[in-house]
Amino acid sequence: MKQLRIIGFLMLLAFSACRSNPQEARQAARDALEDARIQLDSGNKMEAMRLFKEAERYGLLADDTLTVAHARFNIAKCLGVFSDEKEFVSLLKSADEGFGDDYTERVRVMTALGDYYQFHKQFDSAEFYLNRAMDYAERSGTIEAKRWVLSAFHVKCFNAKDLEKSGDYLRQFLQTYLPEVSDSVLMYYYHDMGNIYYKMGNMDSMAYCYGRLEEIVTRLNPDGCNPNGDTWYYYGTLANFAEMRGDYEKACEYRYQYDKGDVHRYLEERENNLALISQKYDTAVMQNELNEKIIHKQRVIILISGLAVLVLVAFLISQVRLARRRKREAEINAELFHFKQQNKALAQKDAEHEQIRQDYADRFSETLDKEQRIMLLLDNYLNNKRLNLLNDLEQSVFGDKDHWKAMLAVVEEKYPGLWETLGQKYPDLTEDEKKSFILSYFKVSRQEEADYLGTTVNMVDKIRGRVRKKMGEKDTTAWK
Question: How far apart are CA 315 and CA 311, in angstroms?
Answer without folding.
Answer: 6
